[in-house]
Amino acid sequence: MLKLTVKLNAIPELDRPLTDEQQDAISRAAADGVALTLREHFLTLPGKRFWGEASEKVRVTPGEKNSYRIGVFQRGVHLQYKGGTVKPTGRPSEVTGKPTKSLFIPRADGPIREGRCSLHEFLAGRSGRVRVIKRKGSGKVFLVMDMEERIAIPYMTKTGKKRNRYKTATPLRILGSLVKRANIPAHPEVLPTNEELLAGAREDAEFKLNEIINKQKHHA
């Protein structure tokens, strides 16, 4: 999980001082502005499925006095931002039910990336045989699947018309590779810049402050 904190440090001088409740409302507005900036930024990133879920999992929660925390409750966001090494967790696999011993990395041009789904989702409802193969020489390990395809074979009839005969083939498709660890480089661009976050906080905070000032004038 990734966490950010917004705290109200200074406000312009006003004819009437703000109450604690009003200061808290401004802090909350600033935090909401940061959260909105995060959500909108995530939706611009490649990997629509992952970052779309991350956008939906941005939460604002109260912190200490006049402060709020913005959390991104999507597993993997902190890793993408900071980088690091990923290893198998040993938890039961969604596919085999056995303890996880390897990480699955989908092939860039494979069917799982094309379908933007998880391995578990891809295999659901498919009857093709899934197996592990090890390439000689390099020692790389791949997860492959026999996928049935209906192939059209063109031919000419005795009258000269074009027709197709069909047969079922089971070509081997590489779904991805299995590795013992993966090094993820840092990608600071997955978060908005400090300037963008500050602009989002300032815009909503100023809107809330002006709303409070207008109410004070109305009740003066």
Describe the structure.
This protein has helices at residues 20-42, 48-56, 77-82, 111-115, 119-123, 194-218, and strands at 2-7, 58-62, 67-72, 84-86, 103-106, 130-134, 141-146, 149-156, 162-169, 172-179, 182-184. The protein is an alpha+beta fold and 220 residues long. The chain is elongated, with a radius of gyration of 27 Å. The two termini are 46 Å apart. The mean pLDDT is 84.
The share of residues in helices is: 25-40%
- Biggest sheet architecture: 4 strands, antiparallel
| Strand elements, count | 11
**Backbone shape:** elongated
Q: Could you name the ranges where pLDDT drops below 50 across 5 or more consecutive residues?
A: none
Mean pLDDT: 84
User: N- to C-terminal separation?
Assistant: 46 Å
> What strand order characterises the main sheet?
5-10-7-6
Strand content: 25-35%
Compute the CA-based radius of gyration: 27 Å
- In N-to-C order, the SSE pattern is EHHEEHEEHHEEEEEEH
Name the structural class: alpha+beta
* Helix segment tally: 6
Task: Record keyword descriptors for this entry.
6 helices; alpha+beta; 11 strands; 220 residues; 33% helix; 4-stranded antiparallel sheet; 3-stranded antiparallel sheet
